[in-house]
Design a protein that fits this description.
binds calcium ion; 7-stranded antiparallel β-sheet; two-stranded antiparallel sheet; alpha+beta; Jelly Rolls
Amino acid sequence: MMSTRSKSVLASLLATAFVFGDLALTSYADDSKQPATAAQPTDTKTDEAKADDAKPAETDKDLVPIKLKLPKPVFKGTPKHVPPGTNLEKPTGKPRPPFMAPKGTENVALNKPVTSSDSAPIIGELKFVTDGEKEAKEGTYVELGPGLQWVQIDLGAKYQIYAIVTWRNHLNARVYHDIVVQVADDADFIENVRTLSNNDHDNSSGLGLGQEKEYWETFEGRLVDAKGTTARYVRLYSNGSTDDDMNHYTEVEVFGLPVK
Ligand SMILES: [Ca+2]
Ligand SMILES: [Ca+2]
């Protein structure tokens, strides 16, 4: 017969064994993950590749995050107030999630020719739009005249476009109005014009009623999902901001793949 004390000791030992057993299991689970991670320290696509294997061949796209290098922020967060006359979106307060596109997608707008509704900018030059410099400082943005203005990039050939990222003037928080992003097959925007983004909620630009919200300009720029549409020309509209009537661009990046 076991004494009460012995029973108590046994119960205690069992409890300890249970805890250790649990730890051992956890430890085993960790160990089992270790070799795969250690063997391929730079390859984070292992799981994704496995998932892709299971898909039918026609959807096997091998999506990876686009290589988007953000400029330094010059102010923190976005203002809390809603400027009068704006149709402002609620800031998420979080960084934008990585944007996924087929492998090989890169900025195809770098150093490509830029034209504009204002051929004689007030400050800077049109080439600033695609020169690769996107830091917020004096001398990096081009300033176009007041009212509705556009800049246009000729990619030089047709591309499958996945994302268009625009930095206007992000020296201070401001909301630009009537932002419309379009692509077309011709320089005059007559053939196969597609509107990818429009936040002109009262159609004052005459380009159609925009369903999207206005937003604070920040170092993150604005990413428009182009959904792989094919085009050679990209045109971006704006109509002044909460700061003044002028229109600015620091950089525009167009993430695409050559059309095969
Ligand atoms: Ca630039
Ligand atoms: Ca408007």
